[in-house]
Amino acid sequence: MNSALFHAARGRGRTSPNPTVGAVVVSPDGSVVGYGCTEKAGSRHAEVVALDMAGDRARGGTLYCTLEPCSHVGRTGPCVARIVESGIARVVASVGDPNPLVHGQGFAFLTAHGVGVEVGLGAARARALNQPFFTLVTEHRPFVILKAAISQDGCMAEAPGARTQLTSEAANRHAQRIRAEVDAIGVGVGTILVDDPLLTARGAYRERPLVRVIFDRTLRTPPGARVLSTPEAGPVMIVTNGAGAARAEVRRRLEDRGADIEVVEDGTLRSALRTLGDRQIGSFLLEGGPTLHQGAWDEGVVDFVRLYVTPHVLGSSGVRLLNGRPFSSAALVERRVHPLGPDVLIEGYVHGPH
Ligand SMILES: NC(=O)c1ccc[n+]([C@@H]2O[C@H](COP(=O)([O-])OP(=O)(O)OC[C@H]3O[C@@H](n4cnc5c(N)ncnc54)[C@H](OP(=O)(O)O)[C@@H]3O)[C@@H](O)[C@H]2O)c1
After folding, report:
1. I need a surface site. Which of 9, 147, 154, 215 has the fewest CB within 10 A?
2. pTM for the full model?
3. Active-site positions?
4. Ligand 1 pocket: which residues have CB below 6 Å?
5. Residues 37/7, Cβ–Cβ less than 8 Å
6. Each residue of 8-44: pLDDT tens digit?
7. CA count, 13 A, side-chain hemisphere, 155
8. Does a structural domain hold residue 259?
9. CATH code at 253?
10. φ, ψ for residue 116, nearest 5 deg
């Protein structure tokens, strides 16, 4: 199962909105005869990749897989039929698939066809790999990662509206790799006005377009914003409310620049996230700035926090992360700490995995 989990991790960021799954086939004499991970959406599932490699050597063997094999015909055929056909005697799976189209039916099909089924080995690691998938399927919204660079004294910027570079090269590279994995990233209009970021994944391999989201209730995004000059990187969605949408001339100029204006009447992030869920966005990296982060925290929509803590001290004029709200990185669940050059990455779940 360790090997299957290793293969599942290879697919991270490439299979959305499908889960990333790993599979290993072990023949009756104990040899590994096949392995694989899910290919991009619409292509072969991990179980089929591993069984194709194993061929006849799968007969009588064990299939280890990190998720319940599918039992429905989606973009590809059902894996369970293929498993039965291959002569596999036993399936060991980490977790059940919460997708209502599968949800136990994969295991039931296998059992009904005489295949032994065991569930639970490596469950925590398998769930951790697929948080976006589990959140999207069970809550119809993306898994939200709040990301911020903060100084040693907990500030995101030197002063309100001041462009402040905090992180080192090593931390920037890490942040770009994370951008390359998620389905979408989001910023508030304040960050667009101050930093004018490109919001692209640079120096990291990404094979899918990256959806860039700007939260802007009054349509203050300038039509000349740099993010609108990079359509090849992915669509730009501006989330506004009725008041913003009513500014017809500004809206038209932004649409002429390729922006997709999404009207969320109640202006809440929760409703905006449902809209992203409708678009099959499973992972959403909220990059700030501080006002947007505070809004997300107050609405209780943050699932995971990723902080790059730098050695700077910004002092009393600095803009504080979450501005005095009760938050301690020490309270993050399954907290991990990694040094990144002079900076330190602290990350963990707000409540725990889904
Ligand atoms: N250290 C870091 O990691 C980092 C990251 C990004 C930015 N920054 C810094 O942060 C500063 C900009 O911060 P900021 O706080 O002014 O900008 P921001 O958080 O990027 O944007 C704030 C604006 O977003 C809009 N918004 C839309 N929906 C919202 C919601 N549900 N909740 C809250 N806001 C919502 C609001 O404008 P409307 O009411 O008009 O919609 C609000 O004024 C700059 O100095 C930038 O360099 C630091």
Report:
1. 9
2. 0.93
3. 47
4. 148-149, 156-157, 161-164, 166, 187-191, 194-195, 215-218, 220, 269, 287-292, 295
5. yes
6. 999 988 888 889 999 999 999 999 999 999 988 778 9
7. 20
8. yes
9. 3.40.430.10
10. -70, 140
